[in-house]
Amino acid sequence: MRLVLVGPPGAGKGTQAGTLCERLGIPQVSTGDMLRAAQAGGELPEELARQMAQGGLLPDAVVLELIDARLSEPDCRAGFLLDGFPRTTAQARGLDDILRRHGGAIDAVVALEVPAEQLIDRAIHRRTDKRTGRIYHLKSDPPPPDAELLHRADDHEDVVRQRIAHYVSMTAELLPFYAARGVLRRVDGVGSVDAVAERIRAALS
Ligand code: AMP
Q1: What is the pLDDT of residues 27-66, one digit of tens each?
Q2: Which long-range contacts (CB under 8 A, 24 or more apart) does 34-38 make?
Q3: Measured from the CA of 52, which atom of ligand 1 is nearest?
Q4: How far is the CA of 8 from the centre of ligand 1 (A)?
Q5: Residue nearest to atom 4 of ligand 1 (CA)
Q6: Which of 8, 58, 62, 89 suits 147 as a labelling partner, its CA being 20 to 30 A distant?
Q7: Ligand 1 pocket by C-beta < 6 Å: which residues?
Q8: Ligand 1: centre distance to CA 50 (Å)
């Protein structure tokens, strides 16, 4: 299975990616993780590191080269799950070219759908216990009285709204691009982790 997973910030994409990869026995390929690893290893040119730090997208050619090299590795032969890539239709077309050379194509693009208001509700009520790392929801999964609570800076409402708007504009062309090929699978991302995982499984079968 050659998959792409997309979803707005806070939709549970990371959790579902982990479950899905484990179930299918395929690697999760995240351009963000690869770029951070390159940066940590001092292999990312300064100009690109600066663009990343400012939250801008890196040039398509840079990420396409990374993806090409990664998908050539043996563990990707039986499939992979792309996370954080493609982010533009130019990248999607570049991915097509790469996969054509490898003799394949994307089988499905899973788009997790969660209404913006729900994403905002989750984010503004999310707290992490500094001591244990456990995540709570102030209303639906309240922390114990002795927890040392942290509200992440990127979980504040204005930041969340901005990130959701960014996701919406990013996918405005990308999702129709894959829908036109009949590979887009829209999955309701509201519900328990298990319920969403089951919907993804059903959408892929
Ligand atoms: P992420 O963890 O996926 O949000 O990626 C972190 C940063 O890496 C992004 O803000 C971009 O600067 C860069 N990046 C990751 N994936 C891509 C991509 N597909 N295209 C361009 N830049 C990317």
Answers
A1: 999 999 999 999 999 999 999 999 988 888 999 999 999 9
A2: 34/66, 34/70, 35/63, 35/66, 38/66
A3: 12
A4: 14
A5: 32
A6: 8
A7: 31-32, 35, 52, 55-58, 63, 84-85, 87, 91
A8: 12
Report CA(32)–ligand 1 centroid distance (Å). 5
Closest atom of ligand 1 relative to the 31 alpha carbon:
16
Task: Express each pLDDT in 121-174 by its tens digit.
Answer: 999 999 999 999 999 999 999 999 999 999 988 889 999 999 999 999 999 999
Q: What is the pTM of this model?
A: 0.90
Ligand 1 atom at minimal distance to the Cα of residue 59: 21
